[in-house]
Design brief:
single chain, 4-stranded antiparallel β-sheet, Butyryl-CoA Dehydrogenase, subunit A, domain 3, Acyl-[acyl-carrier-protein] dehydrogenase MbtN, 11 helices, 3-stranded mixed β-sheet, 48% helix, FAD, Butyryl-CoA Dehydrogenase, subunit A, domain 2, flavoprotein, AcylCoA_DH/oxidase_NM_dom_sf, 3 domains, Butyryl-Coa Dehydrogenase, subunit A, domain 1
Length: 384
């Protein structure tokens, strides 16, 4: 398998960053994995510690408290998180998505108000699009934001919100003009807390995987949001803003998919070299070698495709259809490779004592969030 530093877009600084990220997860996060999985959410302190180390907001300009880098640095962070085996910290959403919206669309005052907190870990970010009655059809959302003087009164419900249990800052998609579809959607930056009038967190959702991440329901009942928190400064821009950022969100998902595939193969190769059956190591059996050869080839091809997408995105050239291809094909590959690797563990692969079991459960959501893979195929087909 190729080494992590073999990607053509990586420079020595990326490898130095990877070393720092690896050490952070090994020292600060992984020793607490069992407790975090049991409680169903990460520790706020882990975000703060990541912020102290400069690992949050890597692509945010330094003037707003960020690392002053680019998306390639975020890619290294997310790759190393998956390789470490952590799925609790919602860095893909916090740094890979939320900060991107503020950098791209925020006013100067909005950037200076919120980005430093997101970068030092004192604020945790989330984005709320999906609703109980619909996910992929964003134009049909029912959450409303009605102007009331200098505020908006927000009412509605959101669900499947990653980081929703801990989030202090939520980029909320709502209808400011219910008579319109796409043209009626706006994004509001909501500052939320346990004592915020009109805001309530629902239960942390019980999931088959990603058990350490706080996926929650959020409820708004005439929740007041200052009109100054309207992202972009004008109503009706939300749908275009969402469409502009979704390619990066889908690329973020693809990064996790490929890193998971590579980790699955590494774990499986180590296991089949140690485990014996019928008098010889599992690696000595032809079926084992053929399965691993097929998985390794699929994974290598996926890495090459992902590297091309990252390079395109860094140049500002990643189009909607290619991002959809990456999200669809790479997550399908993740689920296939992890499943086939788990099979080689036999019964042990189905026990939570082995990481491959958690990887199997975690992988399934990848084909759903960020736009289902069925939607991805539709986007690809439209571009043909």
């Amino acid at each position: 398998m190729p080494t992590p530093g073999a990607s053509p877009w990586r420079e020595p600084e990326h490898d130095e960053l990877a070393d720092l990220v690896r050490a952070f997860f090994a020292k600060e996060v992984l020793p607490h994995t069992a407790r975090v999985l049991a409680q169903g959410h990460p520790d706020r302190e882990h975000y703060r510690r990541a912020g102290e180390l400069g690992l949050l907001g890597l692509s945010v300009p330094a003037e707003y408290g960020g690392g002053g880098g680019g998306f390639s640095h975020e890619a290294v962070l997310l790759d190393e998180q998956m390789r470490a085996g952590d799925s609790s910290l919602g860095l893909a959403v916090h740094s890979g998505i939320v900060t991107g919206y503020l950098v791209a669309y925020g006013t100067e005052e909005q950037k200076r108000r919120w980005l430093p907190g997101l970068c030092d870990g004192t604020l945790i970010g989330a984005i709320a699009m999906t609703e109980p009655d619909g996910g992929s059809d964003l134009q049909a959302m029912r959450t409303r934001a009605v102007r009331d003087g200098d505020d908006y009164l927000v009412s509605g419900a959101k669900t499947f919100i990653s980081n929703g249990g801990l989030a202090d800052l939520v980029i909320l998609a709502a209808k400011t003009d219910p008579a319109q579809r796409a043209a009626g959607v706006s994004l509001l930056v909501c500052e939320v807390g346990e004592d915020s009038p009109g805001f309530r967190r629902g239960r942390l959702l019980s999931k088959i995987g990603l058990k350490g991440n706080d996926t929650a329901e959020l409820f708004f009942d005439d929740f007041r949001v200052p009109a100054a928190n309207l992202l972009g400064g004008a109503e009706g821009l939300g749908f275009a803003q969402l469409m502009g950022q979704l390619p990066q969100e889908r690329l973020v998902i693809g990064i996790g998919a490929v890193a998971a595939m590579e980790r699955a193969i590494e774990l499986t190769v180590a296991y089949v070299k140690e485990r014996t059956a019928f008098g010889k190591p599992l690696i000595g059996h032809q079926n084992t070698r053929m399965v691993l050869a097929e998985c390794a080839t699929r994974t290598r091809a996926s890495r090459v495709f992902l590297d091309d997408c990252i390079a395109r995105h860094v140049r500002g050239e990643l189009d909607v259809a290619t991002a959809a291809m990456a999200k669809y094909w790479l997550t399908e590959g993740q689920c296939e490779v992890v499943d086939r690797c788990l099979q080689l563990f036999g019964g042990y692969g189905y026990t939570t004592e082995y990481p491959i079991a958690q990887m199997y459960a975690d992988a399934r959501a990848q084909k759903i969030y960020g736009g289902t893979n069925e939607i991805m195929k539709e986007l690809i087909a439209r571009a043909l």
